[in-house]
Every structure is written in structure tokens, then in C-alpha cells.
Amino acid sequence: AKHLTMSPPKMPDLSTSTKHKYVKLGYQYLVNNFLTLLLIPILAYTALELFRMGPEEILNHLNSLNFNLLHILCSSFLIIFVSTVYFMSKPRTIYLVDYSCFKPPVTCRVPFATFMEHSRLNLIDSPKSVEFQMRILERSGLGEETCLPPAIHYIPPTPTMDAARSEAELVIFTAMDDLFKKTGLKPKDIDILIVNCSLFSPTPSLSAMIINKYKLRSNIKSLNLSGMGCSASLISVDVARDLLQVHPNSNAVIVSTEIITPNYYQGKERAMLLPNCLFRMGAAAILLSNRRSDRWRAKYKLCHLVRTHRGAEDKSYYCVYQQEDDESHVGINLNKDLMAIAGEALKSNITTIGPLVLPASEQLLFLTSLIGRKIFNAKWKPYIPDFKMAFEHFCIHAGGRAVIDELQKNLQLSAEHVEASRMTLHRFGNTSSSSLWYELSYIEAKGKMKRGDRVWQIAFGSGFKCNSAVWKSNRTIKTPTEGPWSDCIDRYPVFIPEVVKL
Amino acid sequence: MGRSQEKGQGPIYNMRLSTVGATRATETGTTHEPTGLDLAMKLHYLKAAYIYTPEMARDLSVTHVKEAIFKLFDQIAWTTGRLWRRDSGRPYIKCNDCGARFVEGKCNFTVEEWLSKPDRSVDEFLVYHQPVGPELPFSPLIYVQMTRFKCRGLAFGLSWANIMGDSFSLFYAFNLWVKVLSGEKIYAPETSIIDRRFQNPNPTVKDPESIKQVDPVGDLWITPSNKKMVSYCFNLTVTDQMSPHFPANGDDQIPVFEILAGIIWKNIAKVREDPEPLTVTIIRKDPNDLKPIRSIRNSQMISSVHVDSPVAEATVEELVRCIERATDERCGIDEIGGSCDGSLDFIVYGAKLAFMDLSEVDLYEAKVMGKSPESVYCNVEGIGEEGLVVVYAAAKSEERVVTMTLPEEEMERVKSEFKKCGLIAP
């Protein structure tokens, strides 16, 4: 498939001269601290004046203003009133207390050789399709430790509804038990529960399954999002955020997962075999809270969340499409233009989030470049704002190697910035909506998360959507961390060859 | 192909195949090189079936069993690899963690009903088997079958490519596995190249009798045969059925295997007249190898016995003495097996009438939940036309089990000879 051939990302041209670098640095410092720089001379002048006048003259000045009790009272009331209105109407801060990722049991491991052998046996009449899968796997960026659910290990796979429910129970309950342990949360204290799982939606819902298992409260606000693709985790966070604005002193548990069992494509259409090669078992459970008491122990604070939907365009709508093939096997058809559409969706999202996060210097440059292109010369190269100035860490949804390559190129990120995404793809495969959380866990496990660091999570999904969230780290996370990376973090980062010889 | 392959005719139904392997990823590029002796055995597959009663096995689920196998393969990950050929054509094992095939099946009999069948070769149904090939890189070397009986008893059947290791290795691996099932921690030391050389090489044997070259089989490793081979398995008591043939001379150390081999050899010679089996192969544990088996390799001693006078007229004592003087031919086999870069194909079991002695192995040590198996069955797949007799321990120490694989045309007559001399009940 064309969209998977990758060219190595072009490294940003390291400034030929240090002079250029210093000019840029100086400009950024000037623009970003403009107000401060303006304030300093004013303060200096005032201070000088006060010094000059001396204390007696100051008192005379104040007396001449003729303050009386009424004036003072009214002014005080005004100040108090304005402050109250300000604090009341400020949106509640949403804290991410903690989260946990599901670590698959080792018995679910699928080495490349096993995957290929099963592929040959299952598609015994379609050697071309087997050949295609092998080429995808070689270039996929996955490692030898990714996991598929037990039902898929059979030859042929046995995707019964029971097996799907078993997988759901395994991944979700394990993640939630771990979350309870980490945060000390009691099941009865959960106020809001949001589950997102795109392709498996039984009745009763997965959220009902959780409520049943943990005996949650009867007045819980539960939600089950299905069909919303790989970016659904951030949609859940968005919904949780809105609900937490309305309900004071509450917490929300979000469970993001994708159940592989019922969705393993059993046909031979090449465009639909791709997900089989990439999607793997995974789940994440996240605890959000708007309680001030959680301020001290929370890991992150939610700063921004931007959702972009390109579904209005047919091209975007049809690019990831679930359908039946000629033999009535259901699978997900990935269009060849996927990367281009992802790029466009990203641009849309960036246009909205840019002004919220970029420092003034970058915004000014971008604006100038935009005006220049519109008015003077359309051929001017568009200025790509340097997002590395706005964020310390990036979590790009590990949808596939091509997605990460594309974003690295578009945002001009270094290999270190996309390391979390690449290593997550290698160790866990594409775990769909939960992959952002595995990536965040990687960054923490590597000891790179310091207090005040800003993280940008970007996810793409069918629809076509691009959702992104910005978190600010509340405290420095100490290693070693407990999580899915605890037993293997020392082996990472690994070098992932372009083509693995099978 | 084994009996168990006949679809719809066997007593095992609801068969589901999956794959099991090791939990850790093996480093890319790791390989395992077979020795000449390994290559000589490549057309043979070793089989064993262990049956456990419901008391022991009722609570063992497929998940438990698979988890235990994963832990076992962590120790011997190379056995989950696949065979590839070098440019010269020499086969080697690429350690790519591909895995062993795991087969789940159900049986409509209870363990008691199953064990009441007189011919224990029904246990062949408990061992799923497929030969290596026609595509080497996609053929598992190990098949594990887990059969659930109607009463919740369990049977584990292993089919094991002889190129990896001998029967002793198979039992060693199985014992490790049941240890894990019982919750113990296991450790299998890595087998170095040095370990895989056998003690006391006998370089004098240049033309070993026990190995025979067969027509090239290409990449489908099945022993070519013009005759249909059948198996028959029976128990016998040492004192009752064997003593009449070999008067006890006050020595309490009677060579049970040698006597049994002698008796059976004589009876087969009575049936098989043209040509008479004047040379037989003896396969047993290397007596010079004092270390307990702690590795997967071909360490079995393969020796040859030749008599000049007709066997049917010889006494059992004479035959026993000849067997005791068998010549170790492994050196010669190793050399021949590795010649021409492993591109030639040979058979050892059944090249000549062969007798395999597994009686020194305590098969009933393979305890699950502290209880020994009810029954253990051993045999080999891919035996040549001359046949094979396997002798091994039974549940009771004074008994032995004999599994005979002979051409169909001979089997009934051999059985009647056995009835005549009292080895089998009439």
C-alpha cells in the first residue's frame, strides 16, 4: 500500500550559523515577555517618582483625593464582587489523578513467525493475501511481544460472543483493579463512568458490565461510547470534563479499550487485512477529578482539549469504513488516502489549538507568514509553528508506523519526541484508543516527566477525527514506576529496522 | 501418518488447534544446528501419551495447561523454532519462537473405559501428529494434544520430531512441564555443543548396520514404505511370562530387556523367514552417560547385534548374550547422517528390526497434583519396514509394557507366536 512506504523524516536544518539561532532566541524572548518588558520601565519610573516625592508628599496626595467611608466601602464591595464573579465563572480544573494500563498475559504473545504461520493456515487458498500480510508485518514497526486475545490464537480463530465478553472482562477488570489499587479509589465513590470501545457493543453495555462487577452506586452517571474510533479516549475525556463542570466535587472513571476478538477479519481482501496486522489487545482506566483535595496527589491537570471532525467531507468520512467483503466477511476498509486525510485533519486541529498553546512569538510569526502568503506571495513557504516550544512531551496515537512518520515530518519533531509512540507501537502494537496512555506511561517510566511539563496527546480516528489534549504535569514522577513497562523499560528504546526480515 | 488423522473415525472429536510458545522473545538470528546423528533421525517422530484420572486433572483448565507450557518453553525456546535450510541444503533450526501446536480434543469415553481396552495402541488417538513438511519453515516440531475424557480425566499426548532429541529428552521435557503444573519452579540448563557429543565414541564402526539410506524425501519428512505398519501394545509380568524362557540362575539382576528382546526376536524370526532378521538394532540409554538427563538432545545409544546362525533355532540365552555385546554405532551414524550436508535421508528405527529400551525411565514420576499417571504409552512414528519394539515401564514395577510396530501382514502371526509362548494371554 502506497501510504505505508516511508521516507526517513527530514531533520530540520540545524542552523548554519549560531548567529541565526541567537537572533531567533532574542526575538522569542522579546515577544513572549513583552508585557513584562513593558512593565519594568513603568515600575522603575513610578518607584523613582515615589522616592523623589518623599513620604510626606505622598500622604498629601492621598488626602487630597477625598476618600470617605462610603467610597471605601463601595470600592471594596466592587473588588470583592468582581473577584467572586471571576472565581465562580472560571471553569473547574480537571485533574488526572492517576491511570493504569492493561498488561496482557504472556500466554497471549504473538511472535511474527506465529502470526505468519497462522495466516498461512487460515488463508490457505489465498497465498497473495498471505504474502501481503507478511510485507505489512515486516514494515509495521511492531515487535515480537505484542498480544492477541486467546480466541484469535486458534486455527481458525473462534470469535464467539462469549470469547469477546471474556476478553472484555479480562482487559477491563484488570485495568480497573490496578487503578483502584493505585489511587485507593473505592468503587462506591465513582460518580461518573465512561467506557469507550469502538467495535464491540453488547447489551447490556460494557459500562453496565463494570457497574455489575464492582457494584457501583445506583445514581452513577454512566456512558458507553461505541463506534467512535481510535480517538475515542479523548472524546471520553471531553465528555467527562463537561460533566465535571456541572457536578461539583466529583470524580470520573474513563475506561478506553478496543476488543479484538469479534473484529478479526477472516476474509482475504488486502485493504481489510491491514488491521489484523496492527491491532492488538490493550486497555486503560483513567481517574479524573474536580475535587480540590485531589490537587496535591494528581499527576496532571487538563489544560486544553480540541476536537476536530472532518466527517462533512465524503473523502474523510469513507476513508476508514467498516463493510462486508464479497464473501460476507466483515472488516474495516482502509483507504489509500488515509495519510493525506490524517494530515489535513491534523492541520485543522492545529489551527485551533495553536493559538491556545503557542507562545506569542510563534503566533506572530505564523500570522505574519499567513498574511504574507495571502497578500504578497502565495509561494512563500508556510511557516510551521514550532510546537516543541509549547510542549515537552508528545503522545502521538500509535496507529501505525506511517502515522508516526507523517506527524514527525509535519510537526518537525525529533526522534526523541516520537520515541514514546514508536516504542509503544513496538511493544504493544496498535491498542487503539488506549495507546495514548501506554505512551504517557512510557514517558513516566523513563523518568522524563518533570513538574510543569506539558504533554500533547494527539489521536486520529474513523470519521475522520483528530482530537488532541494538552495536560500539564502536576508533579515530577519518580522512577521506577509501576505499569505495563515495569519489566521491560530497561530494554528500551530499541532500534526498529525499516524492514524486519522474517 | 498416525491413526489419529482419520477424520471423523477416531474417538476424539471437537478438535481445536492453537499455538503455544515461550514468554520471552529470542534474540533474532539465534539458530540451533543439528548434529549428524540428529539429521540421521530426521524421519522419525517420538510419541508419548500420559493419562490422568479425574481426581488429578479435573481442575486443570486449558489456560492452566497453556501457562505451564509457556513456562516450559521459556527454558527450551529453541524447540519452538522452525526448520530452514542453508544454501548448501543442510537443515537447521531457526529460533524464531514460532511455537508448538496445541490441540484440544474431547473423548466420549471415561478414563476407565478407555483403559479397559486390551490393545493399548488405542492411545495413538491421544497423540496428534503431522510430519515435518511439505513446507519446512511452517512445520511445528512438537505437537501437544490435551484430551478431556467424559469423566473429566485428561490425557496429554506429545509428538516430538526426533531431530531435536531422543525419547529421554521428551520425558525430561514432559516431567519439567508437569512440575510447572504443580506449581514448582523449573530450570533447564542450556545444552552446549559439547554436551551434545556422546561419551565414548567408537570410531571403529565405519559401515553401521543400524542406519539405512532411503530414497530422497525432499521437504516432506515421511519414511517411505511399501508396507502398511500397525501397532500393538500389551502388558506383561516379568516373573510370570518371562521366567519360563530364561531360568533364573540365582542372580536377582535379570536383564529384563535383553531377555524380552531375545524372546520377541526369536518369535519374529519364526514368522519372518525371508530374509531372517539376523541383525537387529538396540536403542537404549547410554550406559556410560552417568549424568541424569538434563538436556534435549540425541544421546541415545544406537547399537547393532548380529548373529550368524538362524535366530529361530537359537536359545534365548544365546540371543541375550549377543545383545549384551552389541556394538555402539553412533559415531558411524553421526558421520553418515551429516554427510553431503545433510541432504541424504536415512532411517534408523526399522532400518533393521529394532528394540528400544525405555525401561530405565521412571515414566510415572510425571505427577500431577502429586499423583502419578494412570497409564503411559510410548511409540515412534515413521518406522521402517523391519519394525520396532519399544519396552518401557508399566504402572506396576513388576510389569513391562511392549509396543510393537510391524508390517500388517506379519502382525497376526507374530501375535499367535506370542500366545504360543505365553507372552500374551490366549
TrEMBL record, chain A:
Q: Where is the FAE domain?
A: 86-374
Q: Which keywords annotate this record?
A: Acyltransferase, Membrane, Transferase, Transmembrane, Transmembrane helix
Segments traversing the membrane: 29-48, 68-88
In short, the EC number is: 2.3.1.199
**What domain of life does the native source organism fall in?**
Eukaryota
Task: Extract the InterPro entries matched here.
Answer: 3-ktacl-CoA_syn (IPR012392), ACP_syn_III_C (IPR013747), FAE1_typ3_polyketide_synth (IPR013601), Thiolase-like (IPR016039)
Task: Name the pathway it acts in.
Answer: Lipid metabolism; fatty acid biosynthesis
* Beta-ketoacyl-[acyl-carrier-protein] synthase III C-terminal domain span: 392-472
Q: Can you name the source organism?
A: Brassica napus (Rape)
Name recorded for this polypeptide: very-long-chain 3-oxoacyl-CoA synthase
Which catalytic reaction applies to this protein?
Answer: a very-long-chain acyl-CoA + malonyl-CoA + H(+) = a very-long-chain 3-oxoacyl-CoA + CO2 + CoA
Q: Does the keyword Acyltransferase apply?
A: yes
Tell me its family: Belongs to the thiolase-like superfamily. Chalcone/stilbene synthases family.
From TrEMBL, chain B:
Q: Entry's InterPro entries? A: CAT-like_dom_sf, Plant_Fungal_Acyltransferase
Its GO biological process annotations read: cell wall organization; very long-chain fatty acid biosynthetic process
Listed A to Z, the keywords are:
Cell wall biogenesis/degradation
In the UniProt record, the signal sequence range is: none
Pfam family of the protein (one)? Transferase
Provide the family line. Belongs to the plant acyltransferase family.
- Cross-referenced PANTHER family, in alphabetical order? PROTEIN ECERIFERUM 26, TRICHOTHECENE 3-O-ACETYLTRANSFERASE
Name of the protein in question: (rape) hypothetical protein
Q: Which source organism?
A: Brassica napus (Rape)
